[in-house]
Design goal:
- The protein is of the alpha/beta class.
- The chain has 16 helices and 15 strands.
- It folds into two domains: 7-205, Rossmann fold, CATH 3.40.50; 287-404, Rossmann fold, CATH 3.40.50.920.
- The strands form three sheets. Strands 2, 3, 4, 5, 6, 7, 8 and 13 form an eight-stranded mixed sheet that branches. A five-stranded mixed sheet has the order 10-12-11-14-15, with helices on both faces.
- Helix 3 links the parallel strand 2 (42-45) and strand 3 (68-71).
């Protein structure tokens, strides 16, 4: 199923346009095709390196699927248009990079507070400011979590390959629709511009999730109320005959503004957090490699997970007991699992293309149970297998000396 009420026609079009099989494409293109297979039929954006290929692909392909593409005047307008389209029932997406991601933060907060499903792709590049516009980086981990103001939840996921970009974009839409929340895809300029083989599935093989809609006029009266006891309100869409009030101010369950009553604000914000917190096991996703007997654990994400795995495999060949943990969902961060793994290792190494961001989350959960060190690189050049392996070997050697002493 692709579009509610129009599934057979959409599946026919997808099969005709993108037959099942192997394709050779960029990560940015894979993100766009993942969005199309997830049912995205509205895209608003502004071109920015290294995310422009997402917009280019959507501009070319969306009209073929009876979807809509708009190039807006800037990133502020882009996410505003996506929010509006989502409230009419469209699965909607925008994509950008660092400077544009900064501009989108205010309306991202609006989307979080109004529980608007959308997908925002940030193809990370080297910063701050304009930085190295054509170079990849991993410097937006904390901006994704805390870029907009106030107490708020967020879901952010990070792919590690071109094919992963396709499937993780589909997962982003599923999470966004199910939990009525914006979902961020933290890609990066390296994977975004890498070309690899990807297997496109039959559209009937893709599980599609839709947002929950009201089943009665009575339910539609409470677009921000926990009417089913699962903390996720049904979403009464504009143009469907409902009276729906949507505001970025603190609001009651019926959507009407109330900025004066402390209990109203407390109840609303706590529910937003709780609906994510209680479903963490469903939202979080990770991969583990060679951890059964690991004495050294690598924790790495996104593009840096690739050379990290290569370093682990080479380290294993040299007799070093090293494993790898790769968070695919980076917010909410799977710290509890890392804490559990830390009980059986002597050291944790965190390779990433920044000066240390994910490492702070690892340290927060592990605390003093085991040392945590970073392997960090900036300047737009990815970490290599050799650079990470060097730290693994040095750490293993230090460990042997400690044991001998």
């Amino acid at each position: 199923m692709i579009i509610r009420g129009d599934e057979p026609e959409q599946i026919r079009l997808l099969k005709k346009l993108y037959p099942k099989g192997n394709y050779f494409m960029q990560g940015d293109e894979a993100i766009a095709y993942g969005a199309l297979f997830a049912g995205c039929r509205f895209y608003a954006g502004y071109p920015i390196t290294p995310a422009s290929e997402i917009a280019e692909t959507m501009a070319r392909e969306l009209p073929k699927l009876k979807g809509y593409y708009i190039q807006m005047e800037d990133e502020i307008g882009s996410i505003a248009a996506v929010v509006g389209a989502s409230w009419t029932g469209f699965k909607s997406m925008t994509a950008t990079s660092g400077p544009g991601f900064s501009l989108m933060q205010e309306n991202l907060g609006y989307a979080i507070f109004t529980e608007t499903p959308l997908v925002l792709v940030d193809v990370q590049r080297s910063g701050p400011s304009t930085g190295q516009a054509t170079k990849g980086a991993q410097g937006d981990f904390f901006q994704a979590r805390w870029g907009t103001h106030g107490d708020h939840p967020i879901i952010a996921i990070s792919p590690t390959s071109v094919e992963d970009s396709f499937w993780e974009t589909i997962r982003a839409f599923s999470l966004s629709e199910k939990f009525r929340i914006p979902v961020l895809v933290l890609a990066d300029g390296i994977i975004g511009h890498t070309r690899e083989q990807i297997k496109i599935p039959d559209p009937e093989e893709v599980e599609i999730v839709y947002r929950k809609l009201p089943t009665s006029d009575e339910e539609a009266k409470y677009p921000f109320g926990d009417v089913h006891g699962d903390l996720i309100p049904p979403m009464p869409l504009f143009g469907h005959g409902y009276f729906t009030h949507v505001t970025g101010s603190t609001h009651k369950e019926n959507g009407l503004r109330d900025v004066y009553t402390p209990e109203v604000h407390d109840r609303l914000v706590r529910r937003l957090h709780k609906k994510i917190e209680l479903h963490k096991t469903e939202i979080q996703k990770w991969e583990e490699y060679y951890i059964e007997d690991a004495e050294i654990l690598l924790v790495s994400w996104g593009v840096s997970a690739r050379p990290s795995l290569g370093a682990v495999m080479k380290g294993r060949k040299k007799g070093i007991k090293v494993g790898l943990f790769v968070p695919k969902t980076v917010h909410p961060f799977p710290g509890e699992r890392i804490k559990e793994l830390s009980k059986n290792v002597q050291l944790i190494i965190v390779p990433e293309m920044n000066l240390g961001q994910v490492i702070l989350e690892v340290q927060r959960f592990v605390r003093d149970e085991v040392p945590v060190i970073g392997v960090n690189k900036i300047g737009g050049v990815p970490l290599t297998v050799e650079e990470i392996l060097k730290e693994i070997e040095s750490s293993a050697e230090r460990s042997r000396h400690r044991s001998a002493d």
